[in-house]
Write a structure and sequence with these properties.
215 residues, alpha/beta, 6-stranded parallel β-sheet
Length: 215
Amino acid sequence: MIKCALFDLDGTLADTVEDLGRAVDSVLEAYGREKKWSVSDYRKFVGNGARKLIDRAFEHTLDDKELDRAFEIFKKKYNEILLDNACLYDGIKEALDSLKEQGIKLAVITNKPHQSAVKMVTTLFGEGYFDCVIGANEEKPKKPDPWGVLQALETLGVKPEDAIYFGDSDIDVYTAKNAGVESVACSWGYRSFECLLASAPSVIIDKPSYIPKLA
């Protein structure tokens, strides 16, 4: 029996790409670069953390020092606007409510900066809705490294074999596998079905209503 359900945030629980893109556009503007990327482009860029998102938007033209500075500009701007357009996917709240009714613990594991992740989750779901939220910490490895998943499971007292991980990208599938957790790919997010299939998850679902059926 599943005791804990872990979730990616961007592209899995909430559609956040518009504000992520706006924040990166502000960084491009600060550097005198062209704001040429569409929302569709940004969907392809997300998944490996905000620093990597910026690196892709700048087409890998920044050195490490410049990228660090750009990341700091991004974080300040994104914290100002991260809830302007972010919204839960239809059916997500109902699916998670069903898991909670079954006594299943809930956790968020995301490459979004931790402060932003906590603020978003608390605003969209309410204080204390999730049992654990782990966002990106520059001192800890990001997904697909299993650190965040294993840290959450340790905090909640759950073994990997008693957990299931839901995410919208190949990065999430690899994260689950690296942690020894069952992986579920969610096709309503930012990656194509072909990309998800190539990562070989345990199953691919196309509606949030399937979430409680797998727990």
